[in-house]
Amino acid sequence: MPKKQHFYLILILGSLAALGPFSIDMYLPGFIDIANDLKTTEALVSLSLSSFFIGISIGQLLYGPLLDKFGRKKPLYFGLALYIMASFGCLAVTNVDQLIVLRFIQAIGSCATAVASIAMVRDLFSVEESPKVFASLMLVIAVSPMLAPTAGGYLIASFGWKYVFVFLGFMAILMLLATIYKLPESYKPDPSYSLKPKPILNNFLLVLKEPQFLTYALISSVTFSGLFAYVSSSPTVFMKIYEVSKTGYGWIFALLSVAFIGSSQINSIILKWFTSNKIITWALMAQCVVSLLFLIFALNNWLSLYTTIIFIASYLACLGLINPNAAALALAPFSKNAGSASALMGALQMGLGAFASVMVSIKVENSTIPMPLVMAIATLTSLFCLFIGRKMIAKKLNLAYNTQAI
To answer: Which positions ≥6 away from 8 have C-beta within 8 Å?
Structure first.
């Protein structure tokens, strides 16, 4: 493949992968302005973020089979067109309910770009090239939460919150044109592929019966829900309670993203000396201490802007160590159903994330307590899953060993 074509393919696939993170983070600095314009509360505005998470959770389960049956580009056209319509539809909203529904539709559309970009890397690049391309995509996805709220903060401060959706809509139009004219169809449609619910559900049930998947997928998803609690409540906590400006909030969000990205990079280094299991155990225990201290400070009204940033950064740093290791261990038992396992884990993450963002929105108006409360519950639940899950895994291994001995 010529270097120029190689560069354009990675650029397009990276842009497709970044659409979801930009859609989540770019409008966060506008929560207070949206609430004022729509004559509602920030808590109800944050439900538009929850509906987006629900849409992503559902969409990941839908697009996998569609991409296998119809090829990569047709579902991508559909998803981008749906996203564009929903984005420009957000300009005409007159109440928060309309925004919540349109964000759900927008999420269903954006799922096509996330799932298709990963599938097309496997299709278009060799086994030797794929890890480098995936690394580039992961870097784009990781950097997006740093850029999106900062850019969104300046855009909202200059033009208003609706221009975020104008930007996202035109971003998707450019991606659609690039997909049509520059992206090759990388997978031949398979008319024989069944879209009936029963075989698809059977695959998911087989995955769920694997104790190693269930244990580590739950750990990954439940701890990740703490991240969603932070994302959902951070506009109110930073801009309303601590009175940070829109642009200042964007920079704080970018700074906190560095903690998550940095620790996930450090993880790849320390794996030379420690196993994934060991890293998860110690990181999860550290995260428990951090989240409980965060909650104690919040309950006693000891928090300030700087201590809040320190606690969140510490939580995210632990998450950067837990999540990649948990994901690797969850998918390790699969070769045949790796796609179903990956989709199911993504759906669990987003589904629990949506639940956490709803929970944290209930009483977030003038309180810092809901964020650390959800984080503490998530971490303690994950630690419980770890100890119970390891017993289940050991029981299965012993049973398999005894069966072979017989």
So the answer is: 182
